Amino acid sequence: MNVRQIAECMLRCEVEPMSEDVSKLFLSLCLSKESEEKLRLSNEKILGPIYKILKGRTRVEEGQVSEAVYCLFSFLTNGVPGTAVLYAAFLNAMVKKHQKVDINRIVMCFPDGFPTKQSLSQVWDLQKVGGQNSVDMAEAWN
Fold it and tell me: Are 10 and 90 in contact (CB under 8 A)?
């Protein structure tokens, strides 16, 4: 399974409305006047390893995904590295399709909420090929 197929699965996932915490974060990110650089520094400091996994595995050029999106998706992972990799695959596919991904693009992709933990677990299982994670294979990212 390649990143485009993972993204398509994620767009078809069962979703749940944003929790109060996610809603507050989402609104603050939408209304934020912080520069990308300042937000990046905050993300690195506060979100730590999950942010690094998400950003590192997205494999796009700096600025193609807004720091607000990295922040939101880092929060949505609930600290699960595999979920961070799935969101990285999603972002990679979205950049290939749209060149840039910002918080407005995410609103259009997930207007009714974000994938549930259970549906993300199913996507994780689907991406496995012969017992291996396709997200760990270079050809999945091409």
Answer: yes
Tokens of 6: 């993972």
* Residue found by looking up tokens 């690195």 in the block: 44
Size (the chain), residues: 142
Per DSSP, 19 falls in state P
Query: Would you say 69 and 104 are in contact if contact means Cβ atoms under 8 Å apart?
Result: no
Residue 137 counted as domain residue: no
Could you tell me if residue 66 is inside a domain? yes
**What is the value of pTM for the model shown?**
0.94
Please report the pLDDT score of residue 142 as a whole number.
84
CB atoms within 10 A of CB 74: 24
Residue 138 in domain: no
In a 13 Å sphere around the CA of 26, the CA atoms on its Cβ side amount to 17
